[in-house]
Amino acid sequence: MTNSSHSLVSEVLEKLAEYASRSEQQEEKVPAALVRDEDWQGLAFVVDGVKLVVAMEEVREILPYPESVTRVPGTKRWMLGLANVRGELLPIMDLQQFLGAPPVVINDRCRVMVIRNRGTSTGLLVPSVIGMRHLPLNQRVVDAEFEGMVGRYVYDIFSLEDGVWPVFSMAALAIDHRFLSAAA
Q1: What is the dihedral of CA 4, 8, 10, 14, to 10 degrees?
Q2: Which of 177, 66, 178 is nearest to 111 (CA)?
Q3: Is the CATH code 3.30.300.20 the one for domain 39-180?
Q4: Which of 48, 89, 123, 181 places its Cα 20 to 30 Å from the Cα of 82?
Q5: From CA 53, how far away is CA 117, in angstroms rounded?
Q6: What are the residue ranges spanned by the domains of the chain?
Q7: Which residues contact 69 (CB under 8 A, 6 or more apart)?
């Protein structure tokens, strides 16, 4: 190893040690999340003004709207097209439009939630993702039903002080023949 490369490696290791030290110092300042065993954890998002949650394990990742989405001729309007995401072709669907609402307005807040079903990935465009949500299991509404097109995919509902939180099933969406039929 040359002196130049040895010096570069040393600088990188020093910088990493500095980052680790700063991270440990910050950890002391941030209180630990108070998540109870009786809480259900989900990812909150918005579709047509309705706040929904989805099980964390049903979403692979969250992405900003890709810079380039190539429209596929002969598909329904909610099938926005294909995007190249890290070398993988990802179908992008407008979830809000699929559910019968106006199309998502592309802006800095909209996100693509990537779901995986039967070995394939699909990106679902939503107007915004709120973040992780802890819902107390004792706030579950027994035998509640959610109306409209969204209701087809809701399997649970929580009622909290800040409103009703329907639990959306990406798995139910992914096997729905209407969703699987993107051809016009």
Answers
A1: 150
A2: 66
A3: no
A4: 48
A5: 18
A6: 1-30, 39-180
A7: 80, 81, 82, 83, 92
Greater model confidence, 90 or 18: 90
* 158 and 165 Cβ atoms separated by less than 8 Å: yes
Please give the mean pLDDT across all residues of the chain: 87
Read out DSSP for the chain?
Answer: --HHHHHHHHHHHHHHHHHHHHHHHHHHHSPPP---TTEEEEEEEEETTEEEEEEGGG--EEEEPPS--B--TTB-TTEEEEEEETTEEEEEEEHHHHTTSPPPPPSSS-EEEEEEETTEEEEEEESEEEEEEEEEGGGBPTT----HHHHTTEEEEEEETTEEEEEE-HHHHHH-HHHH--B-
Q: Which tens digit of pLDDT belongs to each residue from 141-182?
A: 988 888 888 999 999 999 999 889 999 999 999 999 999 999
- Side-chain-side CA neighbours of 37 within 13 Å: the count stands at 0
Residue 42 near residue 33 (C-beta atoms within 8 A): no
Determine the residue type at 88.
E
Strand, helix or coil for residue 88: strand
